[in-house]
User: What shape does this take?
Amino acid sequence: MTKIEAERPTTTTSSILGQARQISFWAENAAPIGLIALVIVFSILSPSFLTLGNIRAMLVAAAILIVLAVAQAFVITTGGIDLSISATMTLGAVGFGLAWQAGYGFILSAIIAILTAGVIGLANGLLIAKGKVTDFIATLGTLSVATGLALIISNGKPIPVSSSELLVLTSGSIGIFGYPIILAAIIGVVAWFVMFRTRFGLHVQAVGGSEESAVANGISATRVRMAVYLIAAVLAGVAALLLVARVGAAEPAINTQFLLNSIAAVVLGGVSLTGGKAKIVGPIIGALLLTALTNGLTLLGVSQFYQPLAVGLVVVLAALLTRFQKK
Assistant: This one.
């Protein structure tokens, strides 16, 4: 064997490793790269895309999805999934509407909304952590329960809400940043701190990485799983307030788009669906990307029938890229 032949496998191996590193880079940064690409494309195709008014509108529209994506990130980091999160938000919104209608005032109505949503999260945690029901079946069941309860207690009718506090939440801003996106950003910062700077966050990641190893090291996987589903539901209750503020009423009809997009944002953000790999900033950027995509297509006059197709293609591409993420 000549010297050149002996070195050829090494060169080939080096080339393959170099390509793998490149793919890994794209996989790890799919959300920010995709968002930048969308901004460039839509700003060229639509002059109104980067106007201050449209940017503010996009940020306000993204606030609900950001909160839900952060909520879903906690659950998915443990290797679970919450299919009931959108229905939980809807039930929380109806709880707020009924409490407001009964004259309880904004603060108490908001607390009732969050507590109402929290009941669904507690049910999810008990079913999955204590009852050992698979997360898919448990949250699919509570999705139906929450949807049914929202329709029953509201008689299937929207509950108009006219609140000065919600009006401020809807119209108030600091520069181009409306209060909803500021609230979502605060939630994101707190979530990041909890996930990466507290013992609980480390336990969440440990349970998702290997539940057996986590238990062997003294971590209560049962408590961690119950906690993440409760956190997700409480955040869904907060998202319910943003939803009511945006719509001006408590709508009892579930919006499945929020469910699908919350999972999509987490996938785009680089959180592994198998658990163990936590990210908070990634899902937030993923939520912004999906909002920008929908907004840009709307400005270009693309039919709403095609928008779910575009979102689906982006998510599938992101899911394929996750195969090349660093372990």
Q: What stands out?
A: The mean pLDDT is 89. The two ends are 37 Å apart (CA to CA). The CA atoms of residues 58 and 292 lie 7 Å apart.
